[in-house]
């Protein structure tokens, strides 16, 4: 044994040295890491079940643009192949029903509009399949026999070659939409494309939109979604319709719910359709959660499978035998996979935990495919065999391996009115739990959304800069039931702020946060709540309000939420006192003490720049430290990679200035 001691000592020394070197090479997140993070989306299983295609979006930092390519991974996870390399980008990859071909959408090779391209699975270059001269292709679906494709085409905009563009003439009730811009009457219709003859037949007509085509298993019919009320702009109704897959066929309405019906899928035997419908039947639906339903292909009364669950359900997929439906359920800070039995509606949790599942697709074997992320792992694709997940893609291994990420935990706080609120805490890597740190409350938008145990780049980034970061699922959030979600109806900036302050009290009282170094920020409704919170309480020493608004009446007719104003608040000339009461951050700006930066996209039609500009001007007039950052050419979401990096740099610089003196 004496001879073994030196050897053991050398081994232990080498192991310790190697471990120290491996851990020391890790670093905190930094803003430039936005160039390294990839996005995985739209997984599709090949008909034989041997491959999974998906879209992988990566950043070209030299060109300052994000490019999407099509990849595929084998079902056993042993092979990964990039299918497209075009700098123009490809998306909406689909397998032909016989599995011999693979299609995708792209505007490659200098095309002025997107077309469908076809690639032989055995190899070779992709060939352009469609040559649509008029209109924009938005979606498509192969027929079961592989001979036709259902096309979704938006009517063309003005393509005049005159140097002076024509005036935009508007006569719609809702005339603005972020990204789309001003809305004219350009309906979206369904068409049939014959692959052999390349002939296009019109399926639907009129001044309505038809979307989301789904072929029946026998190929005889196509189900689709449409709002065919007298004036679709004045409500959020949508219904499921079916039409025979041939020209001049008559369409039939299946659902009659005055709320929303959508996200449907045919049963394997083609006799029923599963879909999601809104809980509310009102003409404006904001605070709501979807219910899992089934209905006969001939119509009639639907069966509501998840009505008693009181949680939102998404992504319904039939089991192979048609006796149950798998779906995703949003619960308190998580999203799990569940199975609903058709016969009795009984729900069985299949896969849960502190993680978030985002996709479901059925494998020919009857197993499933899913995508999932957790607080330390960006989204990846998983095979779900016998309800056990097996990771297929590993695109983020290199990204994660170089980083020391925040530790993430949940906690529950009590608001001053006794409401229990669920929160998530991000602690800097290797931070002591006994150390009080500067703490930033980063508030989610929506408001109908929730912070989950999933990978969150913004909060990880701020934690990497040395901050505890808190995510608050305030009243108005999903995952806690419909009453919790609807609690803020026409009462913005009240209960949500109470919940944020309750969470702030918790982290201070429990020695997590330094009470003198609290910050707050958010984007969209998170920016709005930032304005509301700093106008209510002066404890926050720095704030960052992104794409927010504080003078509510100033956005009536300026943003895209005319239905919300009309139905939730009423018209300003009838209910102006309500608009005034909800505008207190602007009208009482002289009470605010918090230095605040304001950010917004120049072309944002969701929450236009005027909301940020007004608050910035008020701060400048009052002498409160402030700055205004407007990102040129950006909509509500900042998509330019260099601007994404810039925003992180400005977050960190602003909070460091006031919280790390």
Textual characterization of the structure:
Mean pLDDT is 93; it is low at 1-23. The N and C termini lie far apart (57 Å). It is built from 11 helices and 38 strands. The radius of gyration is 26 Å and the shape is globular. The protein has a domain at 404-659: Alpha/Beta hydrolase fold, catalytic domain (Rossmann fold, 3-Layer(aba) Sandwich), CATH 3.40.50. The chain is 18% helix and 35% strand. With 661 residues, the chain is an alpha+beta fold.
| Proportion of residues in β-strands | 25-35%
Number of strands: 38
In CATH terms, what is the architecture of the domain at 404-659? 3-Layer(aba) Sandwich
Please, what is the CATH homologous superfamily of the domain at 404-659?
Answer: Alpha/Beta hydrolase fold, catalytic domain
State the helicity in percent bands.
10-25%
Shape: globular
Per CATH, what is the topology of the domain at 404-659?
A: Rossmann fold
Summed over residues and divided by their number, the pLDDT gives a mean of 93
Distance between the termini: 57 Å
Spatial sequence of strands, sheet with the most strands: 31-32-34-33-35-36-37-38
CATH level-1 class of the domain at 404-659? Alpha Beta
Largest sheet data: 8 strands, mixed
- Rg on CA atoms, Å: 26 Å
The count of helical stretches stands at 11
Helices and strands: which structural class?
alpha+beta
